[in-house]
Each structure stands twice: as C-alpha cells, then as structure tokens.
Specification:
The chain is mostly helical. It is built from 25 helices and no strands. The protein has helices at about 1-15, 25-40, 55-60, 85-110, 140-150, 155-165, 170-185, 195-210, 225-230, 240-250, 255-265, 275-285, 290-305, 315-325, 330-345, 350-360, 370-390, 395-410, 420-435, 460-475, 475-485, 500-510, 515-530, 535-545, 550-560. It is elongated. The chain starts with a helix and ends in a 16-residue tail after the last helix.
Length: about 575
Amino acid sequence: MFARRASLFALALRPHGPQGRMVSNASNSKQTAKTAQSSPDKIQIPNKIERSPTAILEAIASTIRKDHSAPDYMFADDPYLIPTSSLQKRSYALAKASGKRAARHFLAKYPNLLFKDNADPSIPAYLPPKTTWPETMEPNEAAIFDCMQWGKLDKAYETYVKAKQEGARVSEECKLALFELACFFNSSDMEEEEPLEEKWAKKGVEDLKGKRRVQSANAWKSNSIADKMLEELADKSERAYCSLLKGLVKHGNYDQAVQVYRKMRDAKLVPDSQAYAALIGAVLYTQSEREERVNVITGYLKEMSKHGVAPTLEVFNQFLRVLSFGPKTNKYQNMALSVLREMKKLHIEPSLTSWTQLLLIFYPIDGKEYNSSVMRTVLSRLWSDVVSFDGLSRATDGPMMVDRLLAIMIKHTEGDLADEWKSKFAEIVVGVQTRCPLVAEEQNDRRESRGRALNRMEWTAPMLGNLLLIALRCNGFDEAWKIFEVFSPKRASFVGSPSGRSLAALVAACVDREDVGKATSVLEAMDDLAVEEAKSSAQLLRGRADLALQEGQRALIDRILARKDKPVKIRIAETSLY
C-alpha cells in the first residue's frame, strides 16, 4: 500500500506539458542533468525581509475598498429599517442611544446576574462595571490600582487613606497616578461616556444652528481629592504640575491654571507641549483684548523655543483656533499663514482641524485677490484631506461639509479663473458626485432599493444649484447638464430650490451652444419654481434672432414675459429639532 501511494505521489509531481500531458522521461532526464550542471553546490538562502506584525492584515486590507453607496455604519440594519431622511436618522440614532443607556442601567444595577466571562484571556473592558468590593479587601497599592482601573476614584482614595493609616507602603508612582486621575476627572468617579449616537445628534443640532462650541464655565472642585493628593506628593515634579494645569484648563478654571504656570516658572520647571497647548487654548478666556491674546501666545512660543520644547500639532491647532476668533483682517490671516509655514518647516502635517480653523480665519474675505488665491489653495487641500479621512461618510458632517464647501467655492470661483484652478475645481465637482451620488432626501423609489445599501448623502436643491454653477464656471457644461437632469424630473422630491443665478447661468450656457431644446427645458423648470431670473433668461432667449424657436417654445417665453410680478407672502412655521 505504501509503495503504491509513493508511486502515485511521484506521478503527481511529474512535470506536465502545456496541454496537460506528461513530459517524456527523456526530456525530463535532460532537464535534470542540465539543472545539476548549472546549480551550485550550496543552497543560497535569501536574506530575511523585515515585516511588521500586521503586514499580513495590511496586505489583506489593501484588497478591500469602501462601498461609498452604503449607509453610515451607525445605520446598518435590515434594508426595510435603514433610515433615509434626516428626521428618520436622528430618531433612529436617539432610539439606539436610549437602548444603550437602558442596558448600562441594568448592568450597573444587577452586575452579579449578568456577569458571564467566556473570553480567554479575560477582557475587563467588556465586563459589567465593578460596583462593590469585599469588606475584607486589604488596603494596599494593588487595591488602589484596581479601583482606579474601574474608574472608582472615591474608592481608590478611600483605600489609599486606609493604607496610609495601616502603614502600608504606597509608591510615589501610585500617588502620582491617583493624582493625575483626579485632575482629569475633577475628583469624581469616571462617568459613563455619552453614547456616540447622542453625541452625533447634539453635534448635528449645533452645526445646523451655526453654534461654535465654547468651553464651559469654572467647574473645578476646591479642596478635592486632587488638592489633597498634591499635598501627599513628596516630589512635586513637572509631570505633577502639568497634570494639574491641564486638569484646570479642562474643567474651566483658567485663572488658576495660569497661576500654576507662573509657579512652575518660578520653580524653574518646564511645562510639556500638552500643557503649553492647554495654556494657549485658555488665552481665549483669560485675555479679553484680541491683541493681548496674540502677545501672550507669542510669549509662550518663545519660552517653548528657549527651553527646547518642540511644538506639536495640538499647539498649532490651538493657536489657529484663537486666531479664528479674531477679526478677519490681513494681520490675522498673515499670522495664520506664518503658522502654516512653521508647521511645514517642522514637517508637521496639518489636520482637518487645522484646515477648518483656516477656513474660519479666511472666510469671509471681502473679495481680495490675494486672499482668494489663498482660499483656493486651502479649499483644494481641504478637499484632499476630506477624501483621505473619509469625512463625507459621517451622517451629519457629510452633507454639512459639502454644503459649506460648495458655498465657499461659489464665492471664490467668480471672475476669471486660471486653467489650473478650473481643472482642480472640476475634479472636486466630479469627486463629490462620485462619493456622494445625487439622490433626493425623500426617496420615492424606496422599494427599488431593497436588498442593497442606500445612498448616505442627502442632497438639497440649493446644494445641487451650487454644484451646477461651479461646474459651469469650470467649463464643465456636460457635468452641469447631468446635474440638471438628475434634479429636473424629481424636483418635487428635493428640499428647497436651486438659486436663480445657477439656473440662469445654465440657460445662458445653452444659448451660447445654440441648444434651444435644453435652454427651454431649464426655462420651464425656472417657471415651475417661480424663479425671479426666469424673465431675464426668457428675454435672453428671445433676443437671439438666429435661434429657431418652435411654437411651444415661443408660447413658454411669451407666458413668462407676460406674467406680472406679485408679492408673495410666505409663512414660515416654527419647527423644532427635538
């Protein structure tokens, strides 16, 4: 039996020809002899290639692409239950957050009934929160770290006091860790993190209302665990003072944070880069005069240079944030550009936060040519970062980001554009449509979408109008017409209406191309939407005597020109996002 298997194995290893037939023994023996003559006596083992521990996973991940037509991960569900409108998405997210809160409540109330740990090794983060400790627990350093790991700051401090009373040794590292935790959580137990869905809903409301987030007022607790642990530290090091400073800024006690900084300076202690970033961010609340803010930040940066503290991305972002609250003047804008140059000099890549702050600094720009060229650069780079970080996939941020991006591009594509900028902005127009297919918010053909993921982007008519106008300004008539073809048959499904100037520009482009059919199609849409610019577009079309108008087209133009403008009273109902 063994001999038979060996012969079969040898037969399987025998080389085959191109048609699947076996190569003759004679040719095989010749190849073997030739190989024996050419092969060296020693086997050459190639050098080892150094690879990262995740190299295989990275190789597999490189073969997968993101499905841009899929809904946000937050809304992944049965196709019948996937929300499509903004209201449905918000209700879905808040319902999901409510369910998480209910589950956490029962986990905290009945941890012993729901405790089941099948993981090997155990993963403490996935276990129910530890709420009770045995009365006989020995107060030592291990018990203190155990309480801190579960976020029970009060219990950790209580255990530390007992250990001190019983004479148990507690290291300085343990004391410092307890102090840092107290600074971060303001001497309170670690609170349960707000569900992601609630954060998303609140952020969406703030963005829609146009609010900028402002730090909360002073909430720092006096005579707290942090203050007591600071006294317990034998060595009040730079690390301890930096933790205290950052905690004070985090919880709104800015004046005391500045006092801690001065105390460090008097003791010849140097803050780290995170502490300097916190101080720079606190300037908004410690200095009321704008000029004084810049002077104070410049002083901090000079001290960082003097003590050899390298600035980080967080430091520059905080600086840009302070500048974004200042006036939109050349001085502040040039200062922002100098920050960008310094970042480039230090090989620090700007983040999305950096570009967002720059947009706030440069917009509005009052139509100055120098600033417009700067803004075009910022817009081009911002779009690149948005694509790289997949910023359009977020349920709320995506539509808002596209809306603001298009509105700013409208302002900075007016007048004569260089071919280079036309090409770049045309790429953005195509890129937006590729990643965010043009679909109305209310999808009337929902039945057709069963079994597949719905588009995540909810376009409004004003957004489509801006996209259309930008395409026209960048010599993209075909792209503009595709956008109009998407909007025109389902214009009742889109929220709002395109701007009159965008549709008028499309009519003018059709007239320039002597395409009467397309021009009258746009004119008919303008008439249906009661756009003010419909009359001027009709006059433009009638004024071209060289264009052959059909009877129906003339009737449409005459009807628009004969219409008398009447004041329209619009009643806006009060609506609530809650």
